[in-house]
Amino acid sequence: MLRLLVTLMLAACLVLPATRSDQGPSAATLVIRRGGTYSGTFRSLDSGRPCVRIATTEPVVLDSCVFEGAGTLVECQLAGARLTIRRCVGRGLPPTKDQTPRGRFLTVSEARSVRVEQCLLEQTSGIYVYKWSGDGSPRQTLKVLGNRVRNIDGRYRDGGGLTVSFVGLNQVRGVAGIEIAWNEVISRPDESMVEDNINLYNSSGTPASPIRVHDNYVQGAYPYPAASTKFSGTGMTTDGDGSSALTTTAYVEAYQNQFVSTCNAAMNIAAGHHIRYHHNRLVTSSRLPDGRPLPTTYAATAVFNAYNKPATVFFAHRVDHNVIGYAKPGYRIPLPDRHDLSHENCQPCTDNEHLPNPITLDSERQEWLLWQQKQARRVQVAPLVADAY
């Protein structure tokens, strides 16, 4: 594949932004109209202007780029697009408009192929994928692999915020080969505002190839401020109001993940069919790092028919062989001040292991050590934030 360096982009009929040192708020978006591999630094100080826009269905690779923007960093709204983003750094800047969050790292609509790997995402509102035009073959599917993420942030500058996720799929239906794996996602209290870190809304794999969510480390799901009393987010939720077995979320397998310090819940099944959560670790102390209580914790996991769908739409779930320690004062499931399995909402939850009391901040720190040991046995993910600039 032709490699187009930044110095050659004008020849490719692209709108090229200036370098970081001299680019101002009115700098143009880089519009990619031709396939190839692109590297460089791209910046936008306008919430309404992406750093990069994909305007071709030819394969595009963004390699070792730096994106800094108040709006969406990479926008890919062209049906049939084929995009790879690898070894890039994406930093969300403060919004320039009211009632607007920091931009997403990537927005995608009806793409044919998307791969995001070994990138660093800092203070963005995550990755959003809407519908799909690929056939689910190895070259026409979605992969989000080995990324390092700090602070998924949907806050508005004037108060309030938008519901955002690290990865959100919306109506990505019947696609084989989808994989979300080996990502490290840490959102700190009072520096972030994430709803479900992973939200699968009316999206599905196939019976032979379910959506695979595995070997991720997800720490943090808090309201803003973190000590608030209302929150509905989670570590991961299957979601959606689809009215049939074909349109709801389906064929999802989540395993060997760690969900740590997640308010409300770690892993919920709120919609869909043929969903299995197994061999995950769900650990929450219900405490902020300074020891203050978190009022909005509830239960580690639940299976509930949030949209009141019939048994032909909501069925065939399993939550098994997970390791759970979820502190919640006043409950006793299965131990004092614990709510590991949601009361009356976890009938398909079997053969899970419950950690002994107490579940403390030290318990959460132990999960981080386990993740580091696990990482040491595998290929290195994206560089630390401090090493990326």
Label the overall shape. Answer: globular
The strand order across the widest sheet is 1-3-6-9-12-15-18-21-24-27-30-34
Q: Mean pLDDT across all residues, rounded?
A: 92
Number of helices: 1
What is the alpha-carbon Rg in Å?
A: 21 Å
Reported by name, the CATH topology is: Pectate Lyase C-like
The class by helix and strand makeup works out as mainly beta
Offer a few descriptive terms.
389 residues, Pectate Lyase C-like, 1 helix, globular, disordered C terminus, mainly beta
Describe the overall structure.
By secondary structure, this protein is mainly beta. It has a single domain, classed as 3 Solenoid (Pectate Lyase C-like). It is built from one helix and 35 strands. Strands 1-3-6-9-12-15-18-21-24-27-30-34 form a twelve-stranded parallel beta sheet, with no helix packed on it. An eleven-stranded parallel beta sheet has the order 4-7-10-13-16-19-22-25-28-31-35, covered by helices on one side. A ten-stranded parallel beta sheet has the order 2-5-8-11-14-17-20-23-26-29, with no helix packed on it. The protein is globular, with a radius of gyration of 21 Å. The two termini are 28 Å apart. This is Right-handed parallel beta-helix repeat-containing protein.
